[in-house]
Amino acid sequence: MLLLLIEDEMKLGDHLHEGLTESGFSGNFSRDGAEGRAMALTFW
């Protein structure tokens, strides 16, 4: 499953991304809403 994770808190985002990757998920990780929105609109 392909995910887009948007989290502005660095430490929390890193832990979420690591856990999701270890669980077999793949996708992109953005640290702010504007970048995440742009990724969602251009990628999906």
Secondary structure layout:
Layout: E1 2-6, H1 10-22, E2 26-30, H2 33-43
Parallel strand pairs: 1-2
Can you tell me about this structure?
- The chain has 44 residues and is α+β, with helices and mostly antiparallel strands.
- It has one domain (2-43).
- It is 55% helix and 23% strand.
- It has 2 helices and 2 strands.
- The chain has helices at 10-22, 33-43, and strands at residues 2-6, 26-30.
- A two-stranded parallel sheet has the order 1-2.
- The longest helix has 13 residues, at 10-22.
- The protein is flat and about 25 Å long.
- The two termini are 13 Å apart.
- The mean pLDDT is 92.
> Which range best describes the helical content: under 10%, 10-25%, 25-40%, 40-55%, 55-70% or over 70%?
40-55%
Overall 3D geometry?
flat
- Please state the structural category: alpha+beta
Multimeric status of the protein: single chain
Question: Unreliable stretches, pLDDT < 50, 5 or more residues?
Answer: none
Count of helical stretches: 2
Radius of gyration, in Å, reads 10 Å
Q: Strand order within the widest sheet?
A: 1-2
Distance between the termini: 13 Å
Arithmetic mean of pLDDT: 92
What is the count of β-strands? 2
Estimate what percentage of residues fall within beta strands.
15-25%
- Biggest sheet record: 2 strands, parallel
The domain tally reads: 1
The ordered string of helix (H) and strand (E) elements is: EHEH
